[in-house]
Amino acid sequence: MNIYKSSKSVVALLLLAAGSSVGYAQVSYNISTVAGSSFSGDGGPAALGILSQPEGIAVDVRGNIYVADADDHRVRKIAPNGTIQTVAGNGFAGFSGDDGPAGAAQLNAPYGLCFDRNGNLFIADLGNKRVRKISSDGKITTVAGGGGIAPGGNGDGGPAVNAKLAAPRNVTADVEGNLYISDFDGHRVLKVGLNGTLITVAGTGQSGYGADGGSAISAAVSYPAGLAIDKLGTLYIAESGSRRIRRVYQGVISTVSAGVLGVPTGLALDRLDNLYIADGRAAVTRVSPQGAVGTLPLGGGDVTVDAFDNVFASGAHLLKRLGSGAVTVVGGTGNSSYAGDGGSAAMARLGAPAGLALDTAGNLYFADSQNLRVRRINGQGILGTVAGTGQVSPAPGTQAISVRLGLPNAVAFDSKGNLFIADTSANRIRRVSPDGTMVTIAGTDAASLAGDDGPASKALLSGPTGIAVDTDDNLYIADTGNSRIRRITVAGQISTVAGAGVSTSDGPAANSKLDQPMGVAVGRNGNVYIAETGSNRIRLLTRNGLISTVVDSQAGLNRPRGLRVTDAGDLVIAASGSNSIRKVSVAGELSTIAGTGTAGFAGDGGAARAAQLNSPVDIALDVDGSIWVSDTGNNRIRKLSVAAIAPEPVTLGALSVVNGASLREQAVAPGEIVTIFGTGLGPAIGALGKVGADGALEKQVSGVQVLFDGVAAPLFFVQDRQINVQVPYGAAGASDTLLTIVNEGAVRGSVRIPVKDVAPGLLTIAAGTGQAIAVNENGISNSGANPAARGSVVTLYATGDGQLGPDAVDGMPATATRTNYPVAVDFGGFGGEVLYAGRAPGFIGLMQINVRIPGEFVPTGAVSVFLRVNGQSSQAGVTLMVR
Predict the structure, then answer these.
(1) Which of 197, 311, 672, 820 is most buried, most CB within 10 Å of its CB?
(2) What are the φ and ψ backbone dihedral angles of 159, each rounded to 5 degrees?
(3) pTM for the complete prediction?
(4) Contacts (Cβ under 8 Å, ≥6 apart) of 260
(5) Cα R_g (the chain), whole angstroms
(6) DSSP 3-state assignment of 400?
(7) Mapping DSSP to helix (H, G, I), strand (E, B) and coil, where does residue 850 land?
(8) Burial group, residue 170, by CB count within 10 angstroms (0-12, 13-18, 19+)
């Protein structure tokens, strides 16, 4: 499959300049973590510990406080001396570790906690749809869930481990040691007896509100959450769906009068059977046995009471205690995932890191989106904040470090060192100057579309997610909510460049419709790549205003986000939906360079393709060939480093030299673009040739030179297995030439090849055969969807047309110069009218042929095309679509 679906001539010509599809070596990477960790404060003061999403709370007989941190997939213990420690869970969501130490096991969003009379700790492991037990020896086991039988009916009365639970949210135990489970999405409360059997004690499995006074197992309950049970066996249920507290005694259900509640999720009883209700509001409700209702000055999602009637509540990344009339914080910093500024980035806590950018000094900047900050890692690996306060909602300010950001998602630099921030939820683009001053250059609080073709400062945006800066410092914005790509010029004017139309097909960008564009990148040639996340494809917007599909879901692309274009012309993609980093080579080959496709965290220190990522959303390219990855789901920044490749032995003369268009091994012509295949020819990572001060392509790239009879030739592309080079015009008149490859001063191979006046090869979309690169008379590339009409003019491209005059300069873009050689073009055996044949203006080493297709007799469909220059024919197997 040819991944580059576009048949636009400019695309293919650029691909040719960068490297042919044949022999393009796949670079391998190793992976490591450079920022972000599972640091949670273990062993230190609980007040400095990280609690990402504290939910269930329980206190043992020794006064240790246990907290289920759902978002961190851990259960933590706060000792009476105030230190915090993890007792279960390794910090990564998953299921593992049964019958082993709880600290090495995996949990998945643990919620409710409780102790039984024997000191066993029970965990409602909600994400794993199980209830697990940690015994006094620290071993973890499953006691309910994990089976395939639904509770109710045949499920009741069987082993609890055979039951299929929907979402076990909370647990409690009675004085005898029976365990009760609220199956939140299953709309039941279940009981696990001492013999391990499971029965339903409330609910029918359907959400609803069952009438009071009847059988609890015949009454519907709606999203049961918190549970509590008194010494007489009365069971209390926080029925969050109906916003009521229900009571079950001797199998009969009723409602507790508790005043107006929010969404009740936590329940607890003290020694006097006062009932405490946490409903997400700022105060906990207390209901006495006599029905008196009061409030306590702390709130949260769960609540518990210790043996001394101290009340604990969890919420807002904190654990608080009410005792002796005062509220104190006993655990958490108030931040879910922010820690580490001023210290090693590798030990810090990040919150869903997103956009990445490198400055000219090599410092890495990233949007720490969940923490509402932009942070920087310097060359010594030290982390700091450069923008944002971590507070919610935007606010005006001058210094970036003191300005509130909404939800930063992308960052980019211009050539002057200005840092741009896509502040997504604030619907703004911010600019931070080198002195740290921040201004808004586009957008307001309101999400809207307005302001095109006017000052960007007055324009409205809707959820801008991606940004990129081109070589002229124009800023491109993936205006996601408006389904558009917009551009802000250096003069501050904004316009839409793609997405304002209704067409989802390739063609003029002005007519294009985009589906959730979330990423944007600009190549050195000015082409714009768009991650159309909603339709799982990458689009290419050329400078002549045409849009085409580069790669799509048919090639396995899933939720593409961040994009970058390497100097060699490869497109690197953060494929968040497939938990991988993909690459489309300049030849259109799609490959995976990191990630197995399965979400997780594994593989540091090894091969990147064998590692696990979790929803990566952006990448940045370093000058040494490394790739930085925002591994968002793992709250980490990881680095792909080029794996060392042992040099392969090279035998002198073991080279293959082919026409850069036809890929045929044949005689070469002066000025022709040729491709050389071999081993050990250049750097492991391909490098593009650059234009020097004289306006011509450089003749040494990454330490590589190609000599023709001792004369250095202009280089388009160099890599260890492939080089693209222009044959010097000085080869004219010779019968052969000695080609020599020099890499870092050492000869890597040589071969003598014949020389002819001309050696034409037609450019094609694929590797030398099939659809020709051709532009129809209407300016749209020729393809099956856009065939050329009989009698119309098409433009073809070739290389190997020879020296056209004494003014030809090696490596210099050409001016329009007609060839003196006879030129003919056949379409299906019928000759066309050649209107122009000569140098392709603005290109190096290319021939352009403008020719009229015969108006009669030529068949329709895929018609064979041959170019003949001075009697020499181009390769067979090239076709043009004709209607």
Answers:
(1) 672
(2) -60, 135
(3) 0.70
(4) none
(5) 34
(6) helix
(7) strand
(8) buried
Amino acid at 458: K
pLDDT tens track for 297-335: 999 999 999 999 999 999 888 999 998 889 999 999 887
Residue 13: which pLDDT band, with cuts at 50, 70 and 90?
very low
Separation CA 653–CA 738 (nearest Å)? 10
Contact between 165 and 144 under an 8 Å Cβ cutoff? The reply is yes
The per-residue DSSP string of 857-871 comes to: SPPSEEEEEEEEETT
In angstroms, the CA 227 to CA 205 distance is 17
**How far apart, in whole angstroms, are the C-alpha atoms of residue 522 and residue 532?**
15
Instruction: Classify the phi-psi angles of 413: left when phi > 0, otherwise alpha if psi is within -120 to 50, otherwise beta.
Output: beta
Quick one: three-class SS letters along 562-605? EEEECCCCCEEEEEHHHCEEEEECCCCCEEEEECCCCCCCECCC
- Specify the 3-state DSSP secondary structure of 826: strand
The Cβ-side half-sphere exposure at 793, using a 13 Å CA radius, reads 13
**What integer is the mean pLDDT of 550-569?**
92
| Helix H or strand E segment including 93 | none
Length of the chain: 883
For position 29, what pLDDT does the model report? Answer: 93
Beta bridge partners of 753: 737
Q: Is residue 472 over pLDDT 70?
A: yes
Query: Residue 479 and residue 494: Cα distance in Å, rounded?
Result: 12
Task: Pinpoint the alpha helices (H) of 618-775.
Answer: none
Q: What digits encode the pLDDT tens for the residues 179-225? A: 999 999 999 999 999 999 999 999 999 999 988 999 999 999 999 99
pLDDT, tens only, 844-877: 999 999 999 998 888 999 999 999 999 999 999 9
Tell me, what amino acid is at 872? Q
SS3 402: helix
Q: What is the pLDDT of residue 729?
A: 92
Q: Report which residue type is found at 812.
A: M
Residue linked to tokens 């046995």: 289
Residues 6+ apart with CB under 8 A from 42: 49, 84, 85, 86
DSSP string, 447-460: ---B-TTEEGGG-B
Cβ neighbourhood burial of 270 (10 Å; 0-12, 13-18, 19+):
middle
Q: What 3-state DSSP class applies to 218?
A: helix
- Residue 427: name the closest of 481, 391, 351, 385 by CA: 481
Could you tell me the CA-to-CA distances from 120 to 59, 83, 496, 741 in Å, in that order? 12, 21, 62, 73
Query: What is the distance between the alpha carbons of residues 386 and 479, in angstroms, rounded to a whole number?
Result: 24
The dihedral formed by the CA atoms of 425, 427, 429 and 432, expressed in degrees to the nearest 10: -50
Distance CA(705)–CA(857), nearest Å, equals 50
Helix (H, G, I), strand (E, B) or coil at 557: coil
Strand order in the sheet with 364-368: 353-358, 364-368, 373-377, 383-387
Distance (Å, whole) CA 188 – CA 548: 53
Tokens of 606: 């090894």
| Predicted pLDDT at 596 | 92
d(CA 33, CA 792): 58
- State the Cα–Cα distance between residues 193 and 354, nearest whole angstrom: 47
For the segment 334-388, what is each residue's pLDDT rounded down to a tens digit? 877 888 899 999 999 999 999 999 999 999 999 999 999 999 999 999 999 999 9
Residue (of 72, 171, 78) closest to 122 by Cα position: 171
Would you state the pLDDT for residue 451? 82
Residue 819's alpha-carbon distances to 666, 693, 731, in angstroms, are 21, 28, 18
- H or E stretch covering 10: helix 9-18
